[in-house]
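so my prof wants the structure for this chain in the tokens format not the other one, which i didnt know existed until like an hour ago. anyway here's the sequence
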Amino acid sequence: MRIRRFRRAYLAAEYVALFFGGTTLYNAVLRGKPPIPALLVLATGVTVYLRRAKGFDRESLWRAEAFPGQARSMAVTAGANAVALTAATAVMRREDLFELPRRNPLIWLAVMVLYPALSVYPQELIFRSFLFHRYKPVFGEGPGMVAASAAAFGYVHIVFGSWFSVAASSVGGWLFAARYLRTRSLFTASVEHAAYGMLVFTIGLGRYFYHGAAPAARIQLRGNGTA
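here's what i got, hopefully its the right format
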């Protein structure tokens, strides 16, 4: 029992250090730098770990057969959110509405093609497969795990320099984590994640989700208000 308690405490500390301490350090030292290289390195390490981990369901790394049963609810939710986000962008930032496809259609097309493979799936590996498996002794397998996944996923977006990025990603993280919890299908969670990401870059909110966004508004953790 004492060993089990010690392991839970150790894993809880590791979770905080990795997802919050590591992100804070990255934001302080490498802010403004493209996060994709670091993301791919972490995803590679996570893949090696999961393939060697005892008790990990390796089928969950894909399990595409779970997608058809979720497609309708995903489409309804994504459709409603697409209407709401597009309307909000049109009202609050009209000049940004559909900015990327209008001004840089080739870049927009490249994002639509590369984003799911280079960003979405690696993120899902880390924040869903790895986090769910590694920290199950701490958070269980229900709402606590979903909350832990959403919190870590949201916080890592401080590297984009906007609290909107953190808040929106926390909501998205909850949605993707809940989907993964229901399906144990990284493919299904990745499809949903990719759909929202492509929506964001299409309607004009992409400035909040790439490394060069809002340099003057970067989150300052020391509270001194200077850039």
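also thought this was worth mentioning. The longest helix spans residues 105-134.
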